[in-house]
């Protein structure tokens, strides 16, 4: 129920806000935002004597963090011009604190964790990441553990040590032309991004990890035909994103990137999808589908709300718990389901031929 359907007068609205602040949060600003943004589900009335019942309903109807994306580092060795999670800090939580947060998420209903960055294999040469992957699969027994990486830092010995605990490895690849990758910034020096991609594809096959590809469609690759290359690589999923602007990350005065020159129109994006419609594993994500349909945790384990075109952080789940923090995530569960966010994500259930 929306607040407007309950409140009929300014006086009643003031009483409701004051009562809500007293009953639920100590911070006036946080609680007013809590109700007016509509981030939490449930009935918004805090008037006695039904207050306790409503509080229980809030807990019951709170968003369940089924699938979470944990960007534990912002540092990266690539300089993609459209990057929307840039190296604004170098902070990484201590390992045990990160594990504590992951345990809290699991206790709140998390089924899938995706580790991303930045470049997640950059910190501690992938050992920090490997320990988290092992913890999530072995200790927390999550159905799905996945990683998104540019692939440049991955070594075969990582697969040998941690491959059993990983369900899906997604490699970001925006073009099958090396010069285009260089123009985009999807490269480190003159090192071949495509050589890394094919090498990792083979390792995934060898060590029984489901292989996935993520591509951001932008002005430099929108006319490229990728059908043959994607068919040859045969990923379990090919996520195709429309290049997205996020204020403070890749747009605006405080941004570390200027992505305006990478932006394509909805029509251009659709034309790219139409040309690749024969690729059965293609999963398209327009700006509309992408913006609010992810539960994103930053390096401090704060949920990031992207509804206003920027990333507004909640308090950390390590400080206030998952249920309180997730109310400020801006998560659109309907769009999450509409874009195919829930799928067969455990490699044990994929019935892949290794």
From TrEMBL:
InterPro entries: Aldolase_TIM (IPR013785), Elp3/MiaA/NifB-like_rSAM (IPR006638), RSAD2 (IPR026372), RSAD2/Viperin_antiviral (IPR051196), rSAM (IPR007197), rSAM_sf (IPR058240)
Domain Radical SAM core: 62-282
Principal localisation: endoplasmic reticulum
Cofactors (names): [4Fe-4S] cluster
GO molecular-function terms, A-Z: 4 iron, 4 sulfur cluster binding; catalytic activity; metal ion binding
Signal peptide start and end residues: 1-23
Subcellular localization, as worded in the UniProt entry: Endoplasmic reticulum membrane
Gene Ontology CC, one term: mitochondrion
Keyword Kinase annotated: no
Annotated protein name in UniProt: S-adenosylmethionine-dependent nucleotide dehydratase RSAD2
Keywords, ordered alphabetically: 4Fe-4S, Antiviral defense, Endoplasmic reticulum, Immunity, Innate immunity, Iron, Iron-sulfur, Membrane, Metal-binding, S-adenosyl-L-methionine, Signal
Entry membrane topology: Peripheral membrane protein
Coiled coil spans: none
UniProt-listed GO biological process terms: defense response to virus; innate immune response; positive regulation of immune response
Species assigned in the record: Miichthys miiuy (Mi-iuy croaker)
Recorded family membership: Belongs to the radical SAM superfamily. RSAD2 family.
Superkingdom as given in the UniProt entry: Eukaryota
């Amino acid at each position: 129920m929306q607040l407007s359907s309950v409140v009929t007068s300014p006086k009643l609205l003031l009483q409701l806000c004051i009562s809500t602040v007293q009953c639920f949060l100590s911070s006036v600003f946080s609680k007013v935002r809590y109700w007016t943004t509509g981030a939490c589900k449930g009935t918004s009335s805090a008037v006695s004597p039904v207050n306790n019942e409503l509080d229980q309903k809030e807990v019951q109807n709170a968003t369940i963090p089924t699938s979470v994306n944990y960007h534990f580092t912002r540092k990266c060795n690539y300089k993609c011009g459209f990057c929307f999670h840039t190296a604004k800090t170098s902070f990484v939580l201590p390992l045990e604190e990160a594990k504590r947060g992951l345990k809290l998420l699991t206790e709140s209903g998390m089924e899938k964790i995706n580790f991303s960055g930045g470049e997640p294999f950059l910190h501690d040469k992938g050992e920090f990441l490997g320990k988290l992957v092992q913890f999530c699969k072995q200790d927390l027994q999550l159905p799905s553990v996945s990683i998104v990486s540019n692939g440049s830092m991955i070594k075969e010995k990582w697969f040998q040590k941690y491959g059993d605990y990983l369900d899906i490895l997604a490699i970001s690849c925006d073009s099958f032309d090396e010069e285009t990758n260089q123009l985009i910034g999807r490269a480190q020096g003159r090192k071949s991004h495509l050589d890394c991609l094919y090498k990792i594809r083979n390792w995934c096959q060898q060590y029984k990890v489901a292989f996935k590809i993520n591509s951001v469609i932008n002005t430099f690759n929108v006319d490229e035909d990728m059908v043959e290359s994607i068919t040859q690589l045969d990923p379990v999923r090919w996520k195709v994103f429309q290049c997205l602007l996020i204020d403070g990350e890749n747009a605006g005065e405080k941004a570390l990137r200027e992505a305006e020159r990478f932006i394509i129109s909805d029509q251009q994006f659709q034309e790219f999808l139409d040309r690749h419609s024969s690729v059965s594993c293609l999963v398209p994500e327009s700006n509309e589908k992408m913006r609010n349909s992810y539960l994103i945790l930053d390096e401090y384990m704060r949920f990031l709300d992207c509804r206003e075109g920027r990333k507004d952080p909640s308090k950390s789940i390590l400080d206030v718990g998952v249920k309180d923090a997730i109310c400020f995530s801006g998560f659109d569960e309907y769009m999450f389901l509409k874009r195919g966010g829930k799928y067969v994500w455990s490699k044990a259930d994929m019935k892949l031929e290794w």
